[in-house]
Amino acid sequence: MELKVRKFSETYIIDVNGEMDLYNSYKLKELVLKMIEKKIDKYIINLENVDYIDSSGIGALIFICSHIKKVNMKLQITNIHGSVKKVIELTKLMGYFPISNTIEEAIAKIEQ
Amino acid sequence: MSDEIKLLKVDENSKLFDKTGMFYKEFDSDFRQIRYYTLLIVQKAPAEIKEINLLEQQISEIIKNAVKHGNKCDIKKKVKVWYYFSTEKAHLIVEDEGEGFKELEKWNEFNKKRISCFLNQNFEEMEKYVSFRTAESDDHDSGNAMFAAVEYWNGGVVFNKKKNCIAVLKTFPKKKMGIELNGQ
Questions:
Q1: What confidence category does residue B124 fall into, taking pLDDT thresholds of 50, 70 and 90?
Q2: What residue of B is the nearest CA neighbor of A90?
Q3: Does B123 map to a domain?
Q4: Distance CA A30, CA A64 (A)
Q5: For residue B182, is it within any domain?
Q6: Chain A residues whose beta carbon lies within 8 Å of the beta carbon of residue B115
Q7: pLDDT digits (tens, 9 = 90+) for A57-108
Q8: Do residues B114 and B144 make contact, with C-beta atoms less than 8 angstroms apart?
């Protein structure tokens, strides 16, 4: 899994590339925690290039989502598809996670 | 998706424990190899199965539970896997050498509360039920694997009496043949 960060206006977009599994999902948690320390408060996690996620990946997203809610920051998760979407649906987290179809939609929600 | 609350069951005599005609492999409890073990199993699945990534992921979770929670990653302890795939079903039995899933009833109660939050769309309350933790959980345990498993394995998730052996069954929708009549 590779993580790339880019900025659009005041929002930081984290592009996740590859598989989010039991061996690497902690990296996303660590990255977001470091960004929170730097007082960054608007996040998009873009899963466009993720075709595989397991419970550790879901756990990382829950951790991030829960943490960001607690500190009153903003988060959107975008471009979920295929088995990633299915795992989120099976875990019944579609309403729990702040999900947008596209980055544009996510930016609109975050910066409104 | 059905709103029926699915449970982890204990039934030593379940037909899901019938190993007749199933393939068999056993593995050391090496945490680093869990995805590799899973690939060795899932390569037997027919190419026609859709969402093979999802099947792989669901099998990986069960093997991970056996390696980590059952055998505590003790390399000397074995994980035994029986498996069978066709275009109609995926059937898996995984046994470890651990003490068994003692918190099974607690898990069912926890999951009922989680589903209730979901059905009521009460996501603030759901925050309490997104991760099932036990005294043995560590920071790497996400505590959500079985939530998806109990939904995915639509033919059942059953444990033996000791709860160190799990059998799961997934049935795939049959491919429609011919012409559809009257919207059937």
A1: very high
A2: B148
A3: no
A4: 9
A5: no
A6: 92
A7: 999 999 999 999 999 999 999 999 999 999 999 999 999 999 999 999 999 9
A8: no
For chain B, what's the residue count? 184
> Which residues, other chains included, contact A25 with Cβ-Cβ below 8 Å and sequence gap of 6+?
A1, A54, A56, A57, A59, A60
- Residue pLDDT, tens place only, B91-119: 999 999 999 999 999 999 999 999 999 99
Question: Are A39 and A71 spatial neighbours (Cβ–Cβ below 8 Å)?
Answer: no
**pLDDT band of B184, cuts 50, 70, 90:** very low
Q: What's the ipTM?
A: 0.93
CATH of the domain at B82: 3.30.565.10
- Which positions in chain A touch B126 (Cβ < 8 Å)? 96
B64 domain-assigned: yes
In a domain? residue B153: yes
Among B51, B56, B144, select the one facing A91 at the smallest CB separation: B144
Domains of chain A plus CATH, in order, are 2-110 (3.30.750.24)
Q: Which domain holds residue B92?
A: 9-100+148-171
Instruction: Determine, for residues A93 and B141 on separate chains, whether the beta-carbon distance falls below 8 Å.
Output: no
